[in-house]
Amino acid sequence: MRARRWPVALVALSLLLALAAPPLASSAAAQTVDDIIKRGKVIVGVNTTTPIFGLIGADGQPEGYDPDVARLVGKYLGVQVEFVPVTGANRLPYLLTNRVDMVIALFGITPERALQIWFSIPYATEAAVLVAPAKQAVKSIDDLTGLRVGVPRGAMQDLILTPQAAAKKINLMRFDDEATALQALISGQIDVVGTGLLVNRTLNRNDPGKNYEVKIVLRPLHFGIGIRRGQTDLLQWLNTFVYTIKNNGELEAVSRKWRQLPLEAMPVF
Amino acid sequence: MDYVFQFGVVWRELDALLLGAWLTVRLSALAMALGLVVGVAGALATVSRWRAARAVARIYVEAIRNTPFLVQVLFVYLGLPSIGLRLRPDQAALLAMVINLGAYATEIVRAGVKAVPAGQLEAGTALGLSQWQLFRHVVWLPALRAIFPALGSQFILIMLASSVVSVISAEELTAVADTIVARNFRSFEVYLVVTGLYLAMCLAFQAAFAAIHRALFARWGGA
């Protein structure tokens, strides 16, 4: 019986390889604002593991800066908002495979990502930073040699540090999401964590006494709402929407609520 | 929009993927060896004449078999530092895999040991075999032969389950794939190739098990 299983397994393997060969076309049609309104709900990918920008609240619903922006999207479209939790690593596949209409999940605007998706104009100011306890002497990337640096996989901190990690002997460790990376810092499994500008506040609240502080600002960032390429109608609406909430005080209120900071001026494109 | 498949980006990263697959193979092989040792010890404990040993084995098996592997992995890596045990991601992954596999192996080995007929033991005793000889020739080899297929399936399962240790940053095959996808967003292409690699590793392990089976039980004849 053992002998008979072999051909079956080999057929399965060759089927897989055959699948790899021919190019297939996916079926998703361009989506318009009308399509979303007709459906009565907008499906938004949000991060639910990052303090300030998105966590699961006590009521089980996503809460934070990004979910609040998503709720404003729903309000102005006049539809319900359906949240889908995404991570830094899977938000793009979720978008490209039509599982969400848009991603509002700390999506830093970069030219590399713009090869795959379209971004709205910025709705949030952030930075990719490195955070460590006060006693950790780190002033520049060169000081990271020999240290265990945890980053969320695929996040900006990962992309910036990966090209220099080998040469500078940085022990770069990639976690599936930000929450696990932060937990690893608290557990002492890593020395430095790659995260956002204000996360040290949350760390100090949950793990007092270590005085977590921002050690290095790797890159200032603006977040945009991500949609699939070619959706001109939706992009035009989203840009008008972001412009509106930036200027009518609604985004200012979201910023003060979650970041305890006024809304900074943001460049547009 | 139309999705254009590009497998070129996967072949460019093949070295990294193979390195990840190699860690998967090493973790799995070590976990299988150590997990079997734990399983045999656990099985002997469950049939022990000491009540305490039986109770400890019972609690271990039930606690592990009724909790998710992912939670066990997170507990070993992120929870144990609270009591002073700080393991590297690959060490934590291995420990979690051994503990998990050990519990399942305990149950499998126990079933094999129990299946040895009492008359066979009595015959061995009657022939004047020592305790060790009795275990080795009368209990262990027949039991191992009976449970070999079940044990093989469990070994394959733990290798497949090792994909979740990417959450604690162990750089095995799935973690490497996730990292590549995060960089070039070619999820279909990358995960398809990774699926093929897992399948190939399963076949290789099954071939190894078949070879071990032949080497151990050739003189017994039959399947």
Tell me about this structure.
The complex is a heterodimer of chains A (269) and B (223). Chain A is of the alpha/beta class and 269 residues long. Chain A contains nine helices and 13 strands. Chain A has helices spanning 2-20, 33-39, 65-77, 91-96, 156-165, 178-186, 199-206, 232-247, 250-259; strands at residues 41-47, 49-50, 54-56, 62-63, 80-86, 102-103, 117-119, 124-133, 148-152, 171-175, 192-195, 212-223, 226-228. A five-stranded mixed beta sheet of chain A has the order 10-9-11-8-12, sandwiched between helices. Chain A has a three-stranded parallel beta sheet with strand order 5-1-6. In chain A, strand 9, helix 5 (156-165) and strand 10 form a beta-alpha-beta unit. Chain A is globular, with a radius of gyration of 21 Å. The termini of chain A are far apart. Chain B is mostly helical and 223 residues long. Chain B has one domain (8-218): MetI-like (MetI-like fold), CATH 1.10.3720.10. Helix content of chain B is 78%, strand content 0%. Chain B contains nine helices and no strands. Chain B has helices at residues 8-12, 14-46, 51-65, 69-79, 89-114, 118-126, 131-161, 173-184, 187-217. The radius of gyration of chain B is 21 Å and the shape is globular. In chain B, 36% of the residues are buried. Chains A and B meet through helix 1, helix 4, strand 10 and helix 6 of A and helix 4, helix 8 and helix 9 of B.
